[in-house]
Write a structure and sequence with these properties.
single chain; alpha/beta; Nucleotidyltransferase, domain 5; 2 domains; five-stranded mixed sheet; 12 helices; 15 strands; about 40% helix; globular; binds adenosine-5'-triphosphate; binds magnesium ion; Volactin; Magnetosome protein Mad28-2; ATPase_NBD
Amino acid sequence: MSDKNEVAAASQKPVVQSERPKEAEGFGGPIGLDIGTTNIVSARARGASIQITKQLNAFFTVPASKITGMTLLKNDVLYFSQNGSYYIIGNAADTFANTFNTDTRRPVESGLLSAREDEALNVIQSIIKTLVPPPKSQGELVCYSIPGDPIDTKISVLHHDTILKRTLQDMGYTAIAINEGFAVIMSELAEESYTGIGISMGGGMCNVCFSYLSVPVFSYSIQRGGDYVDTMVGAAVGESATRIKLIKEKELNLLKEPRNKIETSLSIYYEDLLENLILSIQRVITTSESVPRLSKPISVVLSGGTAMPAGVREKFEKLLKANRLPLQFSSVRMAEDPLNTTAKGALQLAIAEEK
Ligand SMILES: Nc1ncnc2c1ncn2[C@@H]1O[C@H](COP(=O)(O)OP(=O)(O)OP(=O)(O)O)[C@@H](O)[C@H]1O
Ligand SMILES: [Mg+2]
């Protein structure tokens, strides 16, 4: 079987219900797709509700052999074959990495397609195909998230954006990009006429967008997020970033006094991340010529996995108040469903475009 066929065989197999419900396969209509450093999430309208499916944006390689190939297929493990290895992709990669006591590899690093991993493109395309079935009719809409250009480097998101667009177009879709911060605004600020600041704090980045009546005024990213916290804390306390990530996701509460050196270090690097984020907002607002003078205070919405620990919202609000900005804020609030906000916002835009 050729490499291409094996991808197809693996990705056409029905996957475990929670990863790719069977209904997703033949169900047409616009799709919202969040292609993040840690997770890829798809959102689709289904009657009055939104159907979410997701995979980890990760892979793990094992030596190729007939018996392994058959066993993986039999167990609904998604993989493709390349250069004598099987590339196990998505959620299953994490299970393999944990079993072998090592780390998964990632096709996206700090928010952008990795230049380090030769296989990045094949991996990301294969994962996308497990979440986005072929369109029912040619040209159906998919709206996919892209980061804002990183503020502190000369890196552009153009390469990342173009590759993703081509991937989706080659599948038969009409593909529209949405800035990740703007997707947060689309998902959470409809009642405020899409006016306010949307922030997505993810694994590799924090994305910020300020929009006035649905028109983005500025958007950008900083290439720091949950991975930065895990790596820095791990190095400070002599633990692996993977272990720090597990502790952070399970136990971190920034409203409580740290109980040990890991929690102390987590609170230090969270504070550092939030300060950096607020300073970047201050810098952009004070140097931008196009920030509108608004008569009413605006809302800030925080989303993404890194915004989830208790106390992040409160700390962000405190720092925002301490930094005098030429804008007035009415509230800092959490998105309803932080891990799925970007995909939901992308879906809202796809639905609006289709109309
Ligand atoms: N409950 C939690 N508490 C703290 N951190 C969490 C929690 N759940 C997830 N995270 C962290 O959130 C990050 C993943 O969030 P998310 O899925 O929003 O990122 P992403 O969209 O894949 O990445 P990016 O937008 O940066 O490209 C990881 O760093 C993960 O450790
Ligand atoms: Mg994200």
